[in-house]
Design brief:
171 residues, alpha/beta, Creatine Amidinohydrolase, Chain A, domain 1, 2 domains, five-stranded mixed sheet, 5 strands, 49% helix
Length: 171
């Protein structure tokens, strides 16, 4: 059996783009959740550098060259600031393919051979926030919920289309 998967229904093209846009209100809530954790710990800031934390904070942006490698971008969230630092050799690709325009405009390019976020007084690593950061990521915000629902609808449409095409002798 040969199945060709095409974009499903209303989610093809523009509808997916509308769902995937960043939401300023969601970002503000995420920033405040992180800042509350920082205040709890008495830390000045945190370096977000894992695939999971970056995808959450940046609305699904993929910040890697290889899934086996470390992200080429780090976000430093402090009590009063937010900075995005990227390996200079990957900046143009991330701007063209992944980053939202408002984030792309604020990138700090770092030579590829230097650390994205060198140790600094008062900055903690995301692992230091442990369960608190996982809890902050667990409760879906409106834009995240819309993306999750869109993914569920699209998956259901694709699976339904495939199921309708399957015949007993296809096994």
């Amino acid at each position: 059996m040969s199945v060709v998967l095409e974009p499903a229904g209303e989610l093809a093209g523009q509808a997916v783009d509308a769902v995937s846009r960043p939401d300023a209100a969601d970002r503000a809530v995420k920033r405040e959740r992180v800042r509350a954790l920082l205040a709890e710990r008495g830390a000045r800031g945190v370096v977000l550098r894992s695939h999971g934390a970056l995808a959450w904070y940046l609305d699904g942006v993929r910040t890697h060259v290889s899934l086996a490698g470390d992200p080429v971008l780090a976000v430093i969230v402090t009590l009063d600031d937010e900075r995005l630092r990227v390996a200079a050799n990957e900046a143009d690709r991330l701007i063209a393919e992944e980053l939202h325009p408002e984030d792309a405009a604020r990138l700090e390019r770092v030579p590829w051979h230097e650390p994205l976020a060198p140790p600094a007084d008062g900055l903690v690593e995301e692992a230091d926030l442990g369960g608190g950061l996982r809890a902050a990521r667990a409760s879906l915000l409106p834009a995240e919920l819309a993306r999750y629902r869109a993914l569920g609808r699209e998956a259901a449409e694709v699976l339904t289309d495939v199921a309708h095409g399957v015949r007993p002798d296809d096994a």
